[in-house]
Amino acid sequence: MPTVRFVSPLGESVAQVPTGTSLLEAAERAGAPVGHSCGGACGCSTCHLWVRTGHSSLSEPSDAELDRLDSAFDVRPASRLACQALVGGSDVEAWITGESLGAFLDEHPELRRQLEAEGRWPPTQ
Question: Which segments within 9-105 are labelled E, that is strand?
Answer without folding.
Answer: 11-16, 48-53, 79-81, 92-96
